[in-house]
Task: inverse folding
Protein backbone atom coordinates (compact mmCIF):
# COMPACT_ATOMS: atom_id res chain seq x y z
CA UNK A 1 0.00 0.00 0.00
CA UNK A 2 1.38 3.42 -0.97
CA UNK A 3 1.36 6.46 1.33
CA UNK A 4 -1.40 8.06 -0.75
CA UNK A 5 -3.60 4.95 -0.48
CA UNK A 6 -2.99 4.83 3.28
CA UNK A 7 -3.74 8.53 3.93
CA UNK A 8 -6.62 8.92 1.45
CA UNK A 9 -9.46 7.74 3.78
CA UNK A 10 -8.48 10.17 6.54
CA UNK A 11 -8.22 13.05 4.04
CA UNK A 12 -11.66 12.26 2.57
CA UNK A 13 -13.07 12.11 6.12
CA UNK A 14 -11.55 15.55 6.81
CA UNK A 15 -13.16 16.98 3.67
CA UNK A 16 -16.56 15.60 4.73
CA UNK A 17 -16.12 17.10 8.20
CA UNK A 18 -15.11 20.43 6.68
CA UNK A 19 -18.16 20.47 4.40
CA UNK A 20 -20.81 20.43 7.13
CA UNK A 21 -18.85 21.95 10.02
CA UNK A 22 -17.78 25.14 8.21
CA UNK A 23 -21.46 25.81 7.44
CA UNK A 24 -22.69 25.04 10.97
CA UNK A 25 -19.80 27.08 12.39
CA UNK A 26 -21.16 30.18 10.64
CA UNK A 27 -24.51 29.58 12.39
CA UNK A 28 -22.85 29.02 15.77
CA UNK A 29 -20.77 32.22 15.53
CA UNK A 30 -23.82 34.20 14.36
CA UNK A 31 -25.80 32.91 17.35
CA UNK A 32 -22.95 33.81 19.74
CA UNK A 33 -22.83 30.31 21.24
CA UNK A 34 -19.25 29.43 20.28
CA UNK A 35 -18.80 26.73 22.91
CA UNK A 36 -22.03 24.85 22.13
CA UNK A 37 -19.96 22.56 19.90
CA UNK A 38 -17.41 21.54 22.49
CA UNK A 39 -20.16 21.17 25.13
CA UNK A 40 -22.26 18.86 22.91
CA UNK A 41 -19.13 16.98 21.86
CA UNK A 42 -18.25 16.40 25.51
CA UNK A 43 -21.82 15.27 26.25
CA UNK A 44 -21.66 12.82 23.32
CA UNK A 45 -18.30 11.61 24.69
CA UNK A 46 -19.94 11.12 28.11
CA UNK A 47 -22.57 8.91 26.47
CA UNK A 48 -19.89 6.84 24.72
CA UNK A 49 -17.97 6.52 28.01
CA UNK A 50 -21.12 5.23 29.72
CA UNK A 51 -21.50 2.76 26.84
CA UNK A 52 -17.93 1.57 27.46
CA UNK A 53 -18.77 1.06 31.14
CA UNK A 54 -21.41 -1.44 29.99
CA UNK A 55 -18.96 -3.22 27.69
CA UNK A 56 -19.66 -1.58 24.32
CA UNK A 57 -16.67 -0.32 22.29
CA UNK A 58 -16.64 3.44 21.55
CA UNK A 59 -16.66 2.70 17.78
CA UNK A 60 -19.75 0.45 18.03
CA UNK A 61 -23.24 1.37 16.86
CA UNK A 62 -24.63 0.97 20.39
CA UNK A 63 -22.08 3.47 21.76
CA UNK A 64 -23.02 5.81 18.91
CA UNK A 65 -26.71 5.43 19.78
CA UNK A 66 -26.15 6.12 23.49
CA UNK A 67 -24.02 9.17 22.62
CA UNK A 68 -26.81 10.36 20.35
CA UNK A 69 -29.41 10.02 23.13
CA UNK A 70 -27.24 12.10 25.47
CA UNK A 71 -26.67 14.75 22.77
CA UNK A 72 -30.36 14.96 21.80
CA UNK A 73 -31.35 15.41 25.45
CA UNK A 74 -28.87 18.30 25.76
CA UNK A 75 -30.04 19.75 22.43
CA UNK A 76 -33.63 19.79 23.68
CA UNK A 77 -32.51 21.66 26.79
CA UNK A 78 -30.47 24.25 24.85
CA UNK A 79 -33.28 24.76 22.32
CA UNK A 80 -35.82 25.65 24.99
CA UNK A 81 -33.44 27.66 27.16
CA UNK A 82 -33.76 31.33 26.21
CA UNK A 83 -33.55 33.10 29.56
CA UNK A 84 -32.68 36.77 29.03
CA UNK A 85 -31.37 37.23 32.58
CA UNK A 86 -28.73 34.51 32.15
CA UNK A 87 -26.39 34.33 29.11
CA UNK A 88 -26.88 31.06 27.23
CA UNK A 89 -23.09 30.80 26.83
CA UNK A 90 -22.77 30.58 30.64
CA UNK A 91 -25.19 27.64 30.77
CA UNK A 92 -23.27 25.97 27.92
CA UNK A 93 -20.04 26.38 29.91
CA UNK A 94 -21.61 24.75 32.98
CA UNK A 95 -22.89 21.89 30.81
CA UNK A 96 -19.36 21.33 29.48
CA UNK A 97 -17.81 21.36 32.96
CA UNK A 98 -20.40 18.99 34.44
CA UNK A 99 -20.29 16.52 31.53
CA UNK A 100 -16.45 16.54 31.67
CA UNK A 101 -16.52 15.81 35.40
CA UNK A 102 -19.05 13.00 34.93
CA UNK A 103 -16.95 11.48 32.13
CA UNK A 104 -13.92 11.50 34.46
CA UNK A 105 -15.94 9.80 37.19
CA UNK A 106 -17.19 7.10 34.81
CA UNK A 107 -13.72 6.61 33.27
CA UNK A 108 -12.29 6.18 36.77
CA UNK A 109 -14.31 2.96 37.05
CA UNK A 110 -12.88 1.58 33.77
CA UNK A 111 -9.69 -0.54 33.52
CA UNK A 112 -8.32 1.61 30.68
CA UNK A 113 -10.18 4.82 31.47
CA UNK A 114 -7.28 7.21 30.80
CA UNK A 115 -6.63 5.71 27.34
CA UNK A 116 -10.33 6.04 26.53
CA UNK A 117 -10.38 9.70 27.57
CA UNK A 118 -7.35 10.37 25.33
CA UNK A 119 -9.13 8.62 22.43
CA UNK A 120 -12.30 10.69 22.98
CA UNK A 121 -10.26 13.91 23.14
CA UNK A 122 -8.07 13.50 20.04
CA UNK A 123 -9.79 10.67 18.15
CA UNK A 124 -8.00 8.48 15.62
CA UNK A 125 -8.92 9.83 12.23
CA UNK A 126 -5.90 8.17 10.62
CA UNK A 127 -7.59 4.76 10.97
CA UNK A 128 -11.11 5.71 9.89
CA UNK A 129 -12.62 3.10 7.56
CA UNK A 130 -14.49 3.53 4.28
CA UNK A 131 -17.70 2.13 5.81
CA UNK A 132 -17.73 4.81 8.52
CA UNK A 133 -16.87 7.49 5.94
CA UNK A 134 -19.81 6.41 3.75
CA UNK A 135 -22.24 6.33 6.70
CA UNK A 136 -21.14 9.79 7.83
CA UNK A 137 -21.37 11.19 4.30
CA UNK A 138 -24.97 9.96 3.94
CA UNK A 139 -25.99 11.49 7.29
CA UNK A 140 -24.34 14.83 6.51
CA UNK A 141 -25.79 14.93 2.98
CA UNK A 142 -29.31 14.46 4.39
CA UNK A 143 -28.77 17.18 6.99
CA UNK A 144 -27.16 19.43 4.38
CA UNK A 145 -30.26 19.07 2.19
CA UNK A 146 -32.50 19.92 5.16
CA UNK A 147 -30.53 23.10 5.88
CA UNK A 148 -30.40 24.07 2.19
CA UNK A 149 -34.17 23.55 1.80
CA UNK A 150 -34.95 25.80 4.77
CA UNK A 151 -31.81 27.96 4.62
CA UNK A 152 -33.61 31.32 4.80
CA UNK A 153 -35.43 30.43 8.03
CA UNK A 154 -32.35 28.87 9.63
CA UNK A 155 -30.18 31.90 8.75
CA UNK A 156 -32.75 34.47 9.86
CA UNK A 157 -33.24 32.80 13.25
CA UNK A 158 -29.45 32.60 13.72
CA UNK A 159 -28.62 36.16 12.63
CA UNK A 160 -31.72 38.16 13.62
CA UNK A 161 -34.12 36.28 15.95
CA UNK A 162 -36.25 39.40 16.62
CA UNK A 163 -36.89 39.88 12.88
CA UNK A 164 -37.60 36.15 12.54
CA UNK A 165 -40.20 36.46 15.30
CA UNK A 166 -41.79 39.49 13.61
CA UNK A 167 -42.11 37.44 10.40
CA UNK A 168 -44.03 34.77 12.29
CA UNK A 169 -41.32 32.15 12.65
CA UNK A 170 -41.55 30.08 15.83
CA UNK A 171 -38.12 30.42 17.39
CA UNK A 172 -38.46 27.37 19.63
CA UNK A 173 -39.24 25.16 16.61
CA UNK A 174 -36.31 26.37 14.47
CA UNK A 175 -33.97 26.31 17.47
CA UNK A 176 -35.04 22.73 18.19
CA UNK A 177 -34.52 21.69 14.56
CA UNK A 178 -31.11 23.38 14.47
CA UNK A 179 -29.86 21.88 17.74
CA UNK A 180 -31.10 18.37 16.92
CA UNK A 181 -29.40 18.39 13.51
CA UNK A 182 -26.32 19.95 15.10
CA UNK A 183 -26.26 17.28 17.81
CA UNK A 184 -26.49 14.51 15.19
CA UNK A 185 -23.50 15.99 13.32
CA UNK A 186 -21.42 16.42 16.47
CA UNK A 187 -22.05 12.86 17.72
CA UNK A 188 -21.10 11.40 14.33
CA UNK A 189 -17.98 13.57 14.11
CA UNK A 190 -16.73 12.84 17.64
CA UNK A 191 -16.72 9.12 16.86
CA UNK A 192 -14.34 9.87 13.95
CA UNK A 193 -12.16 12.75 15.04
CA UNK A 194 -12.51 13.36 18.78
CA UNK A 195 -13.61 16.49 20.64
CA UNK A 196 -10.69 18.83 19.83
CA UNK A 197 -10.67 18.11 16.10
CA UNK A 198 -14.44 18.53 15.82
CA UNK A 199 -14.28 21.89 17.61
CA UNK A 200 -11.48 23.06 15.29
CA UNK A 201 -13.35 22.05 12.12
CA UNK A 202 -16.42 23.91 13.32
CA UNK A 203 -14.91 27.18 14.51
CA UNK A 204 -11.63 27.96 12.69
CA UNK A 205 -12.79 27.85 9.01
CA UNK A 206 -15.92 29.85 9.91
CA UNK A 207 -13.89 32.43 11.88
CA UNK A 208 -11.52 32.96 8.94
CA UNK A 209 -14.53 33.35 6.65
CA UNK A 210 -15.91 36.04 8.98
CA UNK A 211 -12.53 37.82 8.90
CA UNK A 212 -12.62 38.40 5.15
CA UNK A 213 -16.20 38.35 3.84
CA UNK A 214 -19.63 39.63 4.93
CA UNK A 215 -21.83 37.14 3.02
CA UNK A 216 -22.56 33.46 3.58
CA UNK A 217 -21.47 32.17 0.16
CA UNK A 218 -17.93 33.59 0.25
CA UNK A 219 -17.48 32.80 3.94
CA UNK A 220 -18.43 29.20 3.21
CA UNK A 221 -16.16 28.88 0.15
CA UNK A 222 -13.17 30.29 2.05
CA UNK A 223 -13.96 28.07 5.05
CA UNK A 224 -14.02 24.97 2.84
CA UNK A 225 -10.70 25.98 1.23
CA UNK A 226 -9.06 26.57 4.63
CA UNK A 227 -10.41 23.29 6.03
CA UNK A 228 -9.20 21.27 3.02
CA UNK A 229 -5.70 22.78 2.88
CA UNK A 230 -5.23 22.61 6.67
CA UNK A 231 -6.28 18.95 6.70
CA UNK A 232 -3.88 18.12 3.86
CA UNK A 233 -0.98 19.87 5.63
CA UNK A 234 -1.80 18.26 8.98
CA UNK A 235 -2.18 14.70 7.65
CA UNK A 236 1.00 14.92 5.56
CA UNK A 237 3.03 16.34 8.47
CA UNK A 238 1.75 13.73 10.93
CA UNK A 239 2.67 10.95 8.50
CA UNK A 240 6.19 12.26 7.82
CA UNK A 241 6.94 13.07 11.48
CA UNK A 242 5.05 10.09 12.96
CA UNK A 243 2.95 12.35 15.21
CA UNK A 244 -0.72 11.87 16.29
CA UNK A 245 -2.80 12.97 13.31
CA UNK A 246 -5.70 14.63 15.17
CA UNK A 247 -3.39 16.72 17.37
CA UNK A 248 -1.29 17.84 14.39
CA UNK A 249 -4.38 18.94 12.41
CA UNK A 250 -5.65 20.93 15.41
CA UNK A 251 -2.23 22.64 15.67
CA UNK A 252 -2.37 23.50 11.96
CA UNK A 253 -5.85 24.97 12.45
CA UNK A 254 -4.33 27.24 15.11
CA UNK A 255 -1.63 28.26 12.62
CA UNK A 256 -4.27 28.90 9.93
CA UNK A 257 -6.18 31.24 12.23
CA UNK A 258 -2.98 33.08 13.16
CA UNK A 259 -2.12 33.55 9.48
CA UNK A 260 -5.66 34.67 8.70
CA UNK A 261 -5.62 37.31 11.44
CA UNK A 262 -2.16 38.48 10.34
CA UNK A 263 -3.19 38.84 6.68
CA UNK A 264 -6.37 40.65 7.69
CA UNK A 265 -4.38 43.10 9.83
CA UNK A 266 -2.00 43.78 6.94
CA UNK A 267 -4.90 44.52 4.60
CA UNK A 268 -6.12 47.34 6.90
CA UNK A 269 -9.33 47.72 4.87
CA UNK A 270 -13.03 47.01 5.48
CA UNK A 271 -14.39 43.49 4.98
CA UNK A 272 -15.03 43.00 1.23
Result:
Amino acid sequence: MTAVEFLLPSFIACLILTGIHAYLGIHVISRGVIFIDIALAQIAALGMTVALLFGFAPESQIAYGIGLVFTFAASLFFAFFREKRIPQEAVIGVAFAVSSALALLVADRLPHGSEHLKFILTGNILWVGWHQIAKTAVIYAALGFLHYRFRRSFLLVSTDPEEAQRKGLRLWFWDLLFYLSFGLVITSSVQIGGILLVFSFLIVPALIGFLFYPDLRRRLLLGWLVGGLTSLAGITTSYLADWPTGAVIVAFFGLSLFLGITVRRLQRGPVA
Remarks:
- The longest helix spans residues 3-31.
- The radius of gyration is 18 Å.
